[in-house]
Design goal:
The protein is built from nine helices and five strands; from the N terminus they run αβααβααβααββαα. With 203 residues, the protein is mainly alpha-helical. The protein has two domains: 82 residues, no CATH class; 110 residues, no CATH class. It has a three-stranded antiparallel beta sheet with strand order 3-5-4. Helix 4 packs antiparallel against helix 5 and helix 5 runs parallel beside helix 9. The protein is elongated.
Length: 203
Amino acid sequence: MSANNLDDVFLSYKKILKRLKLLGIKTKSGNEITHKDLRYAIKIMEKKHPSCRWKSEKIRSKRYYILIEGFYWLVYVYFQYEKNQIDADIDFFLLRIKQYQEELKVQDKDLFTKDMSMNELINFFQRKYRTIEKAVIKMLKATDENYRYIENGEFIISKEGIKWLCENCFKQKYLELLEQYKMELTELHIKEGYIYDNFFNKN
């Protein structure tokens, strides 16, 4: 792997600012993105997606570098203003998952594999019973599918219903599941010899 190729994958803050300017990407108020703006955006990126490992430790004269995938997150999630950020985030991870699957030639993974009781959903979503109950009522009104049934005197939500709840009511949970799966694919990507943060020490 040549130094030039690595420079295309691991970007300095200066190079990111240059690329953002060339792409015509600005702040929400229409101003040019500053180094301060970028540092704040990367802070948010790290807070939201620490498992993705998009930011290096200090290397090369004690500078930080950002993985190209993290740069794309900044472009398509943080510095876009057409969608809610959570929706843009979900779309980004869905796209990255699809790209990894095509690259690695792996089948799609079902993220929702079991039906759950209402009490199990409290732990799954980390929400109060009443909050989940309201979401289930919303789901039942919005769909023609029978996503809820009774078993042993207890309401059970089908795996398809849980998927609907994630996609429409508990999007942060859905994003967490997508990120986990994306990182599973990322580890396969690394094992196949592709570039990710395993090359940070060579940058």
